[in-house]
Design goal:
It is built from 7 helices and 21 strands. The radius of gyration is 23 Å and the shape is globular. By secondary structure, it is α+β, with helices and mostly antiparallel strands.
Length: 417
């Protein structure tokens, strides 16, 4: 079955964890003992209802405060599809966690409290989803039960969000009025909102088409590991393991290895103990080549007539994570791009982005935690990349503090610097 990865986002107390709990419960993905434990905990905490958010909020601090702090991943499936959910925090101080959860998502699900309407975090998360090229956006107007299921409230929020999203880039935008607590329009249509004729949330998640989002044109295979079993059975075996980042590879294809530039052909493609006729993203495979070439981690296999850009100078959008330090011009960091590691320096900070107005502050001198801005970087070795809008895998990277080894930023490559 096809896999859909989606991330929930929105402001604090908009009901993200409750919605995921409702999805899991109504999709019959909760064991009886899990549900009994949640019911018992809900009674002990004085709730007069079953707090489904407890199914996803696993940290003690999350349960005590009733908020999401870390990214919680949950897995479930229906007869039509498999799902991986990233439940991301709503607090502004955990924006970096939202970036982490949405970075691999095919779809973003933004919740808006019907009583409060669009808030700063609603806008911030929409901007981040757009920057991360999450092509499909679902806006769930939650807690409709608290506004008497008023169509006027839903239409007002829909119009406001549509106007804001016109400045962003999404392949499709869907609005669904729901009550996560009661299950209205989550997996079953609600009789309380006869004015809504669109799909339920689960139906949309099962049927949204994401196959065209993957780049099947530009063949990219970053090498992660050289496989040499050195056993009697596989004494002469030499393969190159990694995850296909773009395009389609088949045995017999002519390929070029970068940065060396040597050309050869694909002798075979293996997955576990099975030989494949083709490999495509996001498959993890081992590729065998016809010729003996010096290849190591960080190299990239691609097509001779379709190669990525090679450059030490790149322009990128950065989301800064670190609470301890700021990003300024001349900041030196380690950079991890696909399977290649290097060092880099910030040549210039172009501007800081205001996520509420989408205006650019070109007078900004630094990026603090959770800030988003455009920078110019120079790396110690050439990166083999595509623009992020063309390939999310080869167009993204992370920045690492060399002193603490902490990930302090995530970047999306816009082009050569």
């Amino acid at each position: 079955m096809e896999l859909l990865r989606f991330a929930t986002a929105g402001s604090v107390d908009d009901g993200k964890s409750t919605l995921i709990g409702r999805l899991l419960l109504d999709a019959k993905q909760i064991f009886e003992d899990q549900l009994e434990a949640v019911e018992r905990t809900s009674r002990d905490r004085g709730f007069d209802y079953v707090n489904l958010a407890l199914l996803t909020d696993g940290l003690r601090a999350e349960r005590e405060q009733g908020i999401t702090i870390d990214v919680a991943y949950r897995y479930f499936s229906t007869p039509k599809r498999k799902f991986i959910i990233a439940d991301t925090p709503g607090h502004v101080q955990y924006t970096r966690n939202m970036v982490t959860g949405a970075s691999t998502a095919d779809l973003a699900l933004i919740l808006i409290d019907a009583r409060k309407g669009m808030l700063e975090q609603s806008r911030r998360h929409a901007v981040i989803a757009s920057l991360l090229r999450v092509g499909h956006l679902v806006v769930c107007v939650n807690k409709m039960d608290l506004v008497d299921y008023a169509v006027e409230v839903f239409e007002r929020i829909k119009a406001e969000f549509t106007e804001f999203a016109a400045k962003l880039e999404f392949a499709d935008l869907t609005f669904i009025p729901i009550s996560a607590l009661d299950g209205d329009n989550v997996t079953e249509r609600s009789a309380k909102m006869p004015w809504y004729s669109g799909p339920t949330l689960l139906w949309h998640l099962e049927n949204v088409y994401v196959g065209s989002d993957r780049n099947l044109i530009d063949a990219r295979f970053p090498v992660q590991y050289v496989v040499r079993p050195m056993s009697n059975e596989y004494h002469d075996y030499r393969g190159y393991a990694g995850q296909v980042a773009g395009g389609i590879f088949r045995p017999g294809d002519e390929v070029v290895v970068l940065p060396s530039g040597f050309r050869t052909t694909v002798a075979g493609i293996d997955s576990a103990s099975v030989s494949l006729e083709e490999a495509f993203p996001p498959q993890s495979v081992t590729m065998r080549l016809a010729d003996e070439i010096d290849i190591s981690r960080g190299d990239m296999i691609c097509r001779p007539n379709n190669m990525p850009t090679q450059s030490q100078d790149v322009e990128a959008m950065i989301c800064w994570f670190s609470p301890e330090r700021t990003l300024t011009a001349r900041t030196t960091l380690a950079i991890k791009h696909t399977s290649r590691a290097a060092r880099c320096q910030v040549k210039a900070l172009r501007y800081r982005l205001d996520v509420n107005t989408l205006s650019r502050d070109e007078s900004a001198t630094h990026l603090a935690m959770n800030d988003i801005g455009r920078v110019s970087l120079r790396t110690t070795v050439p990166l083999l990349y595509d623009e992020y809008r063309r390939n999310r895998t080869t167009g993204s990277f992370i920045l690492i503090d060399e002193a603490t080894n902490a990930t302090v930023g995530a970047g999306m490559i816009l082009g050569a610097g």
